[in-house]
Amino acid sequence: DVQLQASGGGLVQPGGSLRLSCAISGFISDDYVIGWFRQAPREEREGLTCVNGDGGITWYDDSVKGRFTIAVDSAKNTVYLQMNSLEPMDTAVYYCAAGSLRGIAFGTYSLARNMDYWGKGTQVTVSS
Q1: What pairing do the DSSP bridges indicate for beta strands 68-73 and 18-25?
Q2: What is the pLDDT of residues 81-95, one digit of tens each?
Q3: 64: phi > 0 → left, psi -120 to 50 → alpha, else beta; which?
Q4: Where does the pLDDT of residue 28 fall: very low under 50, low under 70, confident under 90, or very high at 90 and above?
Q5: Fewest CB atoms within 10 Å of the CB: 9, 19, 28, 126?
Q6: Which residue(s) pair with 24 in the sheet?
Q7: Furthest CA-CA distance within the chain
Q8: What is the reported pLDDT for 79?
Q9: b vs e for 26-60, b when ≥16 Cβ sit within 10 Å of the residue's Cβ?
Q10: Using CA atoms, how far apart are residues 6 and 109, in angstroms rounded to an integer?
Q11: Residue 1 confidence (pLDDT) above 80
Q12: pLDDT given for residue 29 in this prediction
């Protein structure tokens, strides 16, 4: 059974950092693209970044480029999201998701409809 579990959220001051973890079980990550999404109240779920199984290919949304970094630890079957220079606008529930490799442009894994499995979210609040 495929499972993803996001953790690491919390309350942080503006300008601070957090590292989210997505623990993956039940499938071989090389056959999937892993992405991080977030959803703020009354907003649609938006794709932030995604990575292929060996970490060699990444995509970032412009809103987080240069501040967030996605990384894969294959030995631990875990994907991380390092978030720096956090701003109040980053406040949201953050989700990790997995989409099976298929013939679509890599950046389109940023669309929620292209992901097959979702973990429960973790709340990130940026506030002074």
Answers
A1: unpaired
A2: 999 999 999 999 999
A3: alpha
A4: low
A5: 28
A6: 4
A7: 44
A8: 95
A9: ebebeebbbbbbbeeeeeebbbbbbbbbeeeeebb
A10: 18
A11: no
A12: 64
Q: Which tokens in the block code for residue 52? A: 């292929």
**CA–CA separation, 114 vs 1, rounded Å?**
19
Length of the chain: 128
Taking the C-alpha atoms of residue 90 and residue 101, their distance in angstroms, rounded to an integer, is: 29
Q: 2-7: which pairs have CB atoms within 8 A and are 24 or more residues apart?
A: 2/26, 2/27, 2/98, 2/116, 2/117, 3/117, 3/119, 4/96, 4/97, 4/98, 4/117, 4/118, 4/119, 5/119, 5/120, 6/94, 6/95, 6/96, 6/119, 6/120, 6/121, 6/122, 7/122
